[in-house]
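Feature request disguised as a bug: please show the residue count (357) next to Phosphoseryl-tRNA kinase in the output. Example input:
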Amino acid sequence: MKTAEDARGVHSEGPRKLGLCLLCGLPAAGKSTFARALSHRLREERGWAVGLVAYDDVMPDAFLEKASARPLPSQWKLRRQELLKYLEYFLMAVINGCQMSAPPNRTEAMWEDFITCLKGQDLISSAAPESPSCYLLTKTAVSRPLFVILDDNFYYQSMRYEVYQLARKHSLGFCQLFFDCSLETCLQRNGQRPQALPAETIRLMGRKLEKPNPEKNAWERNSLTIESPACSSEASLKLTDLLLTALENPVKYIEDNVEQKETDRMMCSTNVLHQADQTLRRIVSQTMREAKDEQVLPFNLKLLAEELNKLKAEFLEDLRQGNKKYLCFPQTLNVSDVISFFHYEKDNIAQKYFSKH
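Example output, currently without the count:
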């Protein structure tokens, strides 16, 4: 692995150096202020091209028709994935040295905000009038090392892992900065904002926050904790080393990497685990209601409930651990497949008690 010392010559000839850096932490932890200062510093001191993408600037009004409306979590997830797709279109244009085209399926308002974001940082310009959906890369974007900084909360590990997957897919550098700010400080700062978030939203996020864990997750090894937006000289040196090391050591995707496939499976399993748990609970409850309607004896109802709950627990354990008692990994990693297998096993159990009656 190349070190930061090897990376001092980032202006030398060689392959384009591209990196993704994500900022994570609670709202009002100081991420946006830090991101703007870091972008300015990298442009002025290092001569790099920088694309700062603040999710709050690109996403908020893109799909809320009513000012008072709040999106569902599923909507937020879809829009976050859509934004990463936009980013991938830009990165592919940079990697291939070609124009950036607009994706066929897009949320127009959000796409326009994304384009405005890139134009404002001198990374793209409008193409010819006859090609309104294509954009030209600027000299800045194609002639210098480029770091894209993503400014959002990224409080779930799975959110950050989606960015890592993008870096791995295109062999980009990857690193992340975690802003370790107390809940009380974030609440105080949030209260001073013109458009403050509900305090309970920040408290809830604080309870859900999954900090980077480099010791457990190899893909998070390029992580740095920022304890104050005003970086000390020592922290500033660590940050520079982190960015340089990430640029010089892009993530490599190895198709037969068993360890990486296991990480992918675990992350995907985590994403569907909650949905599966809620759905299986409803199926068990519905089956018990049907048993009561069929006037299954109380003693047998108790046995049926015990068997179904045991089955549910075993399915969820399969999903967590990748066991093969009921589920065939890695193919079966979506909720619909889990439900289908569960229904089959559940019917086998229920039939015994319904037949007794």
